[in-house]
Amino acid sequence: MAPASKADRKAALDVAAWTFNIVTSVGIIMVNKALLATHRFTFATTLTGLHFATTTLLTIIFRWLGYIQPSHLPLSNLIKFVLFANLSIVGMNISLMWNSVGFYQIAKLSMIPVSCLLEVVFDKIHYSRATKLSIVVVLAGVAICTVTDVSVNARGLIAATIAVWSTALQQYYVHFLQKKYSLGSFNLLGHTAPVQAASLLILGPFVDYWLTNKRVDKFDYSVTAVFFIVLSCTIAVGTNLSQFICIGRFTAVSFQVLGHMKTILVLTLGFFLFGREGLNLHVISGMILAVLGMIWYGNASSKPGGKERRTYSLPVDKSQKHGLLSETGDRDDEV
């Protein structure tokens, strides 16, 4: 009875984590779309810096209240993480500016195979045939939904490559650092958010001016615009936290695969809220295919052998066999 209860509790927490991430991610996209479409606030990098500044403030409050315990993260790992994370943010913005929407979406889809490659190389993860096929189905479905015109140029390709690899490395690092240093989601945010906030708030205005030829300090900050900026920062706290929770509980690949549910929700909500055309039979069929692929991925990856870490051992004599089995069992428990 106890194991079943433990499994049910884990399943409930998993669903809650995904729901939290989907709600906050879709919410912030809708708010940011309103900021861009209605109020012409185009300073995405600076806005992201404000997001992390708000997150930093919350982690300071939680640490003061005793909800976040002291923890350690080596400076070298912190610098690597912030470098990957900031390159991801800037790279995505530049990729969107220099590439067509179609190629931008293809670049985002390529994060899944890149994340898979990182897990295979660094974690020795093995994917079953069914798991691989389910990922292909998800990619095909989302591609049908989002990819339209596809044109690419040299600088756009470079920007997309940097964006994809830095995003995949940042998401891999979230899982790696939490496991290696036994860090909770808020603990890791407490280490990374202040550095990201400081660096993005310093560099953000210059990057945004380069991308938009507009100065953030010259923007007309009306009451409504400020309200949406504050709302965006508030929701961003949940988005940042839920991302760390989800990747910590699962992996970067699972986060990417199931995270495409957000793409489908954004398309649907964008159609109803912003009155854009495009939700036709072609797009709906892609949505259905992507959802079926996500369901298949969840089922295939959870089965024995669907997604597991490979362990290698050298042949030993019978006198050593018992010790080897014990060591292998301990290693499998860790996985």
Helix and strand succession? Answer: HHHHHEHHHHHHEH
How far is the first residue's CA from the last residue's CA? 24 Å
Q: How big is the Rg?
A: 21 Å
What's the total count of β strands?
Answer: 2
Enumerate the strands of the largest sheet in spatial order, edge to edge or round the barrel: 1-2
Give the structural class: mainly alpha
Q: Give the strand content.
A: under 5%
Low-confidence stretches: 312-335
| Number of separate structural domains | 1
Shape, principal axes of CA atoms:
globular
Number of helices: 12
Question: Main sheet?
Answer: 2 strands, antiparallel
Mean pLDDT across all amino acids: 82
Helix content: over 70%
Q: Would you kindly provide a written description of the structure presented here, covering whatever features stand out?
A:
It is globular and about 55 Å long. Mean pLDDT is 82; it is low at 312-335. A two-stranded antiparallel sheet has the order 1-2. Helix 3 runs antiparallel to helix 7 (154-181). It has one domain (2-311, 318-334). The longest helix has 38 residues, at 2-39. 80% of the residues lie in helices and 2% in strands. With 335 residues, it is mostly helical. It has twelve helices and two strands; from the N terminus they run H-H-H-H-H-E-H-H-H-H-H-H-E-H. It comes from Musa acuminata subsp. malaccensis. Pfam families: TPT. Its main location: membrane. Keywords: Membrane, Transmembrane, Transmembrane helix. It is found in: Membrane.
